[in-house]
Amino acid sequence: MTPYIRIFPGAIAFFLWFLLTGTLLGLDPLKSIDQYVQEDWTTGNGLPGNSVAAISQTPDGYLWVATRQQLCRFNGVKFLTLPLFGNAQTGYKEITALKVDRDGNLWAGTRGEGLFKYKDQVFEIFTQKNGLSSNTINCLYCDLKNNLWIGAENGFLDRLNEKEITRFGKENGLMEPYIYAVSEDSRGNLWVGTRGGGLYRFTNRRFVKIPIKDFDRCDVTAIKEDSSGGLWIGTNRGLAYYRGGQAELLDKSRGVYGYVIYDISEDSDGNLWVGTGNGLFRIRKGWSGLSTMETNKLMNGSVVSTIFEDREKSIWVGTDGRGLTRLRDGKIRTFSVESGLPHEYVVDMYEDRDKNLWVATMDGLTRFDKGILSRETMTVEFSDAVVGPICQDREGNTWFGTYGSGLYKLEPGRGKRLTNFTTRDGLPSDSIISLYCDSRGILWVGTSRGLNTLENGIFKSHHDNAGLLANEIYCIYEDSKNNLWIGTDKGLTLGKNGRFSIPGGGSLPPDVMVSYIYEDKDNNDIYWIAAKGNGLIRLKGENEVFTFTTATGLYSNTIYQVFEDAGGYLWMSCDKGIFKAVKKNLDDLAAGAEGTGKAQKIEYTYYGKSDGLKSEECSRWAQHSSIKTSDGRLLFGATKGISIIDPQNMKINAIPPPVLIERVVSNNKDLELDKETDRLILRSLDYIQFYFATSTLISSDRVSFKYKLENYEDSWTMVAPSQVKIATYRGLPPGRYTFRVMAANSDGIWNEKGASFTFDFSPGFIRSLLFKIILGFLTLAAAASVFLAGRKYLRHRRAKNKYRDSLLDPEIVEQCMKKLSYVMDIEKLYRDDKLSLQALSKKVSVTPHILSQVLNERMDKSFSDFVNSFRIEEAKKMLQEADEETSVLRVCYEVGFNSKSAFYRAFKKYTDRTPSQYQKELKEKK
């Protein structure tokens, strides 16, 4: 049978915009609704209830979620439930509405329990006793003047202003008993929706009913003015639009028709989100207003009760029974089965010379034709085999390899007919793993059983080439010097001047499985080699090898492809997703030794599901399962579609993360600020702990912190995202301290202001540092006195014991003392630096034993102390009389010391000063 391509109609026109455009904030309206990052919370992962009634956000960044009977606060990681209804266990208590006013107060309306205000961790309650029309509240709205409007269930609308409540009802023209919705437009008009009574406008303290065409007695459940000034009205039969003084229900061709509308919200990019009884709708208006309105739908069958956009431009969707969902625009766009791919698993991709993008999946082939997506599916002629590598030769023929059905060629000008080549035509295997057309026009075919070339219509086998390490050919690449690089399951082969060899000088890891080869754009002598299981290999020349693995900080050891962007980053696909590393950092690590100041660890950024990946596992089948297109975009094939990254236009979360000091603990007690002095005075402080956090809702688990305690430490302490967010200090001296903490989001944007906590540690005198110093000094002085007295007693006792068998003649002692005085005072014998006990004993005509006994018993000195005391006394005189030319070193040697160190030790022992200090004091006195 002649092979052919069957083309299915149904081009997806927006994919041109999907590939070529981007936006910096909010949810890109050009994306289909399924391409946003969607995250869900239910009771299974922390939400206290699966039915969400209302959502709001306070200025500190916390998200507040009201389930039917619980109010909880969300910081991006966990939900904290607050006791709105106390500990009461009887009766059904329901939260119906949430609103944050312009002062940052959180208001919660309830069914039967009145109105709650939350500020500074304190709840205040308002009921009919305080002037409310009813304790059952259906809706809340805060206007531009910070008035809180309270829609009750008894026909009244209350306005709360500075705790003064004003009631509006039938006397003001509001004739319906149930208020469902309140909103204010840009012109200051207040709009009110009722049950069964339609829409009212409030002007000059009077309500005027606004008819809705063909639907007079309707329930108006939601009201929202969009950025262009148009007013949208949600009803129990669909969506209405107000213009020309009348509201009109939109028909099936132009809106959400027939569904109960529960909420309407417009995001910062002009998308209109509509929550209904049958899912979430996004409405994107065309150039001519309503006439070309596009509607997309999500959450089929779910009751969407509330919609809220937070300060980081994420859309939060509360449902009745399905939990809480967040939609946001990630850094990565994913094109998947929902967008038009025949199968979620992408095998190979190829951009041809006409910039058509070919994508092979597990279930067929797709071509994006010059930016207009058309779906072309290969049929039975592939024998149900998976299409693998794709390549185009110099003649414009497009080649498709398959896993089991050989090689196919699509020739230009032959319509949709394909030519098939198999083992019958000379191929060693019908499983094609890689394809490459070199600069000479030769087609290289890598199979599971060897390497072949197709030249002039003839296949030639190279599996017996001496330099080819294995027969499973994973990748083929021609560098700028026209050398051919061949990656196999057992290593790398270099084809040069028609001959094959093994590069790396034997330094490449043994049996390395090479999946991709990239030539450095700045240095064509460097090659980056992706290895499955062996990390990233840097080959310089043909012999200098450096291997990056997880041991050196690489994100994964299983690398599939590697690309370089214009900003100096290397992007890699792997078994755990996508990551990038600074190329210079890798070069420095490969070249630098310790002490050079160059990098010793890889710095990388990884991207996962929170960034938009549908799957964190990239596909690994073929050489081009991921590619870099001619316009610089990176297309990563994955197990769930194509992940598209534009490195030059990646969205950055430029909003600094809020920083919060959630708790301060000292001596097992939680601390609070003194409201009057705005500072805290601590009298006792064994330790103090600071618990800090962030309330950013985007990638909260990837926020970094740094902190320091001012007046105690000079440098910041860095806290990685995975580390505990607690700072502990012990043994602080008295003083005033300020603890400061800052945070950076996952894009490295720092909140430089951060958060701070100031306190004084001022203990009483008994607990003060001065008292401790005095007490310590007295204790040391007492201990020193006891020690010195004891040492003197022991020395005397040792001396007596030493000479207890010797009876000194008093005459001999007296003569010895006179001679010692003469030789030391008159002859100044101490000036001899070689003077010893033996030499001195001869001079005074006694034995060394008797001289030592005389010095110890009569003078309480050792020989060295006796001699050095004379030396130091003379040194002091010389320093007093010294002129500017007299140096300390000269004095040292003249008085008999033979080293400067011995002189300094002895001088300080007898004077408690160094010679230099003594000399300086003498000059100051003069």
Largest sheet: 5 strands, antiparallel
Give the C-alpha Rg. 43 Å
Query: Helical stretch count?
Result: 10
Q: Write down the overall mean pLDDT.
A: 83
Low-confidence sequence ranges: 1-25, 593-597, 802-806
- Structural class, by secondary structure, is mainly beta
The beta-strand count equals 67
Shape designation: flat
Distance between the termini: 119 Å
Helix content: 10-25%
User: Which strand order spans the largest sheet, edge to edge or round the barrel?
Assistant: 1-35-34-33-32
As a percent range, the share of strand residues is 35-45%
Structural notes for this entry:
There is one protein chain. With 926 residues, the chain is mainly β. The protein is built from ten helices and 67 strands. A five-stranded antiparallel sheet has the order 1-35-34-33-32, with no helix packed on it. A hairpin with a 5-residue loop joins strand 32 (346-351) and strand 33 (357-361). Helix 5 crosses helix 6 (848-859). The radius of gyration is 43 Å and the shape is flat. The chain starts with a strand and ends with a helix. Mean pLDDT is 83; it is low at 1-25, 593-597 and 802-806.
